[in-house]
Amino acid sequence: MTVAAHPQQQVAGAPATSGRRVAGALLRDRAAVLSTAYLTLIVLMALGAPLISAIIGHGPNDFDTAAVNTDLGGIPHGSLGGISAGHPLGVEPQNGRDILARIAYGARVSLLIAAAATALTTLLGVVLGMLAGFYQGWVDQVICRVMDFLMAFPALIFMIAILSSLPQGNRSVLLVVVISVFGWPYLARVVRGQTMTLVNREFVEAARASGASTGALVFKEILPNLRSSLIVMTTLAVPGYVGTEAGLSFLGVGVAPPTPSWGQMIASSVGWYAVDPMYFAVPGLFLFLTVLSLTVLGDRLRAAFDAGEAS
Amino acid sequence: MARYLAGRLAGVVLILFLVCLFTFVIFFTLSPDPAVMICGKTCTPDRIDQIRDVLGLNQPFLTQFTGFLGGIFAGRDYGHGANLVHCAAPCLGYSFQTNQSVMDMVVERLPVSATVAIGAAVLWLLFGILAGLLSAVKEGTWWDRTAMGLALGGSSIPNYVLALALQYVLVVRLQVLPFPQAVAFGDDPVVWFQSYLMPWIVLATGYACLYARLTRANVIDTLAENFMRTARSKGLSPALTMRRHALRPALTPIATIFGMDFAALLGGALITETVFGLNGVGKMAADSIAKNDQPVIMAVTLLAAFFVVIGNVVVDLVYTRLDPRVRITAR
Amino acid sequence: MSDLLVVEDLTVTFPTTRGPVEVVKGVSFTVGRDETVGIVGESGSGKSMTSLAIMGLLPKGARTRGSVRLDGTELLGRPERELRRLRGDQLSMIFQDPLSSLNPYYTVGLQIEEMYRAHRDKSRRNARQVAVEALAQVGLPEPERRVDHYPHQFSGGQRQRVMIAMALVCGPKLLIADEPTTALDVTVQAQILRLLADLRRESGTGMVFITHDLAVISSIATRVLVLRRGEQVEYGTAEQVFAEPRHDYTRMLLDSIPRIDDEVSA
Fold first, then answer.
1. Judging by beta carbons within 10 Å of its beta carbon (0-12, 13-18, 19+), is residue B110 exposed, middle or buried?
2. Interface residues on B facing C, Cβ-Cβ cutoff 8 A
3. Chain B residues closer than 8 Å to A252 by CB
4. A165 and B19: CB-CB below 8 Å?
5. Is A74 left (phi over 0), alpha (psi -120 to 50) or beta?
6. From CA C220, how far away is CA A246, in angstroms rounded?
7. Which of B65, B82, B156, B181 has the fewest CB atoms nearer than 10 Å to its CB?
């Protein structure tokens, strides 16, 4: 451009590749940076759980009766839920298990289940949503009916009912499957709608007219255009699944004890909240901050992508 | 209109039937034998057979399923001879745990869940929409950023964490509220109110934060619409421009979401009711699941699905009244 | 008799992150009573900003300099309360896209009535009668029935007729039409143009007609103002501008319309 640009174009600034532009926007946002930092910390903590255990000298299931006052019904020694050099985040009442070690190992369970559920949901949602949007007709009809049915289902009650009636087995895998079965329609609905509009756009029609195969159409033309909404939707889905896993564990149908999980830790603290508030405050705070960070990040990602589309 | 309604109701019945079938299949194939559970520790094979016979558990799947469905519409008999018990329609069977009629249990507990849902809905609509409106009008200001930050935080607190935190602060520490008790409104309105206050707040917080963000986004989008510019060009007062031209388009989608959220809550607020020990449908669901009380689980699942699908139909009907562009067309 | 609208050295400035940007740079023109003045320019030429500045409807943060006088009354810098009383009553506006410019939630009758009731008669029954008459005046068939219809139940051309009926319901002195035919089909465009020209002549309203299309201007305006990037590059009678354009930009705009010389000179 040789002439002075129109004011709106001047404001928008030099064009950048969308990935770099979004990353730049996030780096300038204090809330997004803080959230990313916190999440990195949690992931590192989950990965390094055995290391943490080794350093503080307590495994997640090691009893430490010396840390609790058996005369007072097992309340931890000390004022803040038994915080001490040996137990940086205190201990559980009664059996004295180290809370930091349990939080770290619990993070593994929570994050792994949430990540796996997100992956499975995304896979189901993208495949079924694209099938419905791409082929339309009866394929669309069938998939839409199934989605209607699943969304009309009282998911939480049903998840609990299924999980409680299933044999113990591998609870983590069951949780992932059950969460995903009820979760995919929400993503698929969006993918279906976007695929439908994309299929009718000129560039897809052009590709189709020039003889591109269905596979090429889907992977080269449609999928790349769904990328930004997929990133946003999955980022916003993760906190939901972290919360669902914790909720199910809280209700006693999640991962089986003694494997620690944040929801389960909060559930077992219910009877103690009056005398040992730190017992629920610590896992509660970790859970809250994780959900919040993921939500903030998803929110800011969406804003960054939207700003990119508008310019 | 009549054809549309008939079509929608047929859809409702179909979905409820599928929910029934699905739930039944899961229990029939996966669950441990309820007869063994009912029988308890001092049990003989004869006794188990007897229980199975009375409950019809030794019959094939289809017979059991049609028996259950028949009970809902026509009532059914359990056992025979001297042990015969008639359960009048709509019959949802008897609890394995208490032998109480499941229908009676539902009728007894539904008002509690409704009270929880209605109180929470009033709170979250009031605060959510008000905060969202203010934020939209004062977009970009200190108030907007604080309110939306809080809303983001508030919607990230799992409600059981909030419930425990509130109980600790209000009941244990500050002692401004008593521990929730099961008191009827007529017996002691003050204690009744105090008992429901925390459940209402806990349930309303997440929704209020969500609605505040939705309201803000919708109002901001509406204010940017061309018809708002037209309204200003007509010289209408700012109050009329806002009330008539901005609010109705901005709040109509929220009415839809509210209908669905509220309907889902009528089926029981599982976690909130459990944490506060409120004897609603949600707590009944949690208890029945913990004790594998199948007739009760079936009932609460069906009830929740019933509210969701009926809520869906009601929302669609109301929407045609709220948005003139939406026309009813028979499928 | 003095001119109806006098715009002198109008400048509109927007604050941006890179400092203030002038989107309208010293524009001056007049509109006589019973006259149509055309403003022509490409998108971003400042023509819409000029019209919004006259209406006092510029987006927040915009600053204006110069003078805009309607019937001798200065409009720039007037308190919003007084401007509101003039808007819709003394001067009104028609926008480009009639579908999005009408509120989808209310009947067209209500949207016409509320304007009349804001400035003239508060009673609902009179206002309704006025709305029906206004719809009849713009050539909408069955106005008694159509008055209770919603915008989505009209065709594009009919919607623009509704907008015109609404804009004229209080009998304004000045009508600003911002690309009123751009969103319409070609045949409908001609009908709407004729309707606007006829109604304007009957009511003796002054009109500012904004378009990017010089061909449209030739059939409706007596004087033409050409804007380019906020600057006034040409101003004169339609004959002058079309016969001997003084600026290259105008020549370029003229060249871009399919030549139908007979019609232009007629």
1. middle
2. 225-227, 229-237, 240, 244-245, 248-249, 252, 323-325
3. 290
4. no
5. left
6. 70
7. B82
**In the structure encoding, which two tokens stand for residue B286, read together?**
């949690």
Q: Closest Cα partner for C59 from C114, C101, C12, C96?
A: C12
Residue with tokens 């009711």: B273
| Alpha-carbon separation of residue A10 from A7, A300, C15, C17, C134 (angstroms) | 5, 24, 12, 9, 44
Residues 6+ apart with CB under 8 A from A269: A276, A279, A280, A283, B164
Q: Does C252 touch chain A (CB under 8 A)?
A: no
Task: Number of helices (H) and strands (E) in chain C: give both, helices first.
Answer: 12, 10
Residues A55-69 have pLDDT tens digits of 777 777 777 776 677
Element (H, E) at A300: helix A278-310
Interface mutation target, options C21, C24, C227, chain A, most CBs of A under 10 Å: C21
Strand spans (E) along chain A = 68-69, 75-76
**What are the helix and strand counts (H, E) for chain B?**
14, 2
Nearest-CA neighbor of A95 among A132, A142, A58?
Answer: A58
CA A57 to CA B186: how far, in whole Å? 57
CB contact under 8 A, C114 and B227: no
C16·A10 Cβ contact <8 A? yes
Six token digits for residue C46: 């400042």
The residue with tokens 């992508």 is A305
Q: Does an H or E element contain C178, and which?
A: strand C174-178
**Neighbouring residues of B23: CB distance < 8 A, sequence distance ≥ 6:** A158, A161, B297, B298, B301, B302
Q: What does the DSSP assignment read for B144-203?
A: HHHHHHHHHHHTTS-HHHHHHHHIIIIIIIS--SPPP----TTT-HHHHHHHHHHHHHHH
Q: How far does the CA of residue A251 sit from the closest CA of chain B (Å)?
A: 8
- Tell me which chains share at least 3 CB pairs under 8 Å with chain C: A, B
Q: Which two tokens stand for residue A13?
A: 């600034």
C93/B245 touch (CB, cutoff 8 Å), yes or no: no
Contact: A4, C16; criterion CB under 8 Å: no
Domain boundaries along the sequence of chain A: 29-59+94-310
Cα A286 to chain centroid distance, Å, stands at 14
| C206-255 pLDDT per residue, tens | 999 998 888 788 888 889 998 888 888 888 888 888 777 777 777 777 77
pLDDT (tens digit per residue) in A173-231 = 888 988 899 889 988 988 888 888 888 777 777 887 887 787 788 888 888 888 888 88
In the block, residue with structure tokens 């607020």: B269
* CATH number for domain B103-322, candidates 3.10.150.10, 2.130.10.10, 3.60.40.10, 1.10.3720.10: 1.10.3720.10
Residues of each domain in chain B carrying CATH 1.10.3720.10? 103-322
CB contact under 8 A, B165 and A288: no
* Superfamily per CATH, domain A29-59+94-310: MetI-like (1.10.3720.10)
The ipTM, to two decimals, is 0.88
C23 touches chain A (CB under 8 A): yes
- pTM equals 0.84
Q: Enumerate the residues of chain B whose CB falls inside 8 A of the CB of residue C57.
A: 229, 232-233
Least Cα separation, residue C66 to chain A (angstroms):
21
Query: Closest Cα of chain B to C105: distance in Å?
Result: 6
Task: Enumerate the residues of chain B whose CB falls inside 8 A of the CB of residue C88.
Answer: 233-236
Distance from CA of C107 to the nearest CA of A (A): 30
Structure tokens that stand for A192 in this block: 């279906």
The alpha-carbon radius of gyration of chain C (Å, integer) is: 18
